[in-house]
Amino acid sequence: MTQVLFVECGFGADQHGQSATKACVRACRDAIEFNSIPSIAKIVPGGYENMKLVIKIGTPKPKEVDEEEVKKVFPYGKIASLVVQEGGLNCSSGVVIEEMGDETDEFLIAVAAVTVGY
Predict the structure, then answer these.
(1) Which listed residue, 30, 60, 62, 114, has the most CB atoms within 10 A of its CB?
(2) Residue 110 in contact with residue 18, Cβ under 8 Å?
(3) Which pTM value belongs to this model?
């Protein structure tokens, strides 16, 4: 990436089921879903297809993240890099609900930074 246009941050959680992937997907969606960037086609040489994304995510369980599921969040652009590292937060939800997939009372929280540029 030679030109950074902006960086968006997001937060995602899985209160039940302890899925690091679900928390990361939600963090990435949170980072991008409230944005509309109609001028990308004019700003980025080659438009949406040449837009590059650098994604960095912090989660308590980075080795359990399905990166292909996370990549599906992004409707266009090329993912230049996706880094999933130790971070986020693991705390207690205060309850175990087996019907919702809970094995423990863990509440997984992930944070994401999505850099957009070309």
Answers:
(1) 114
(2) no
(3) 0.93
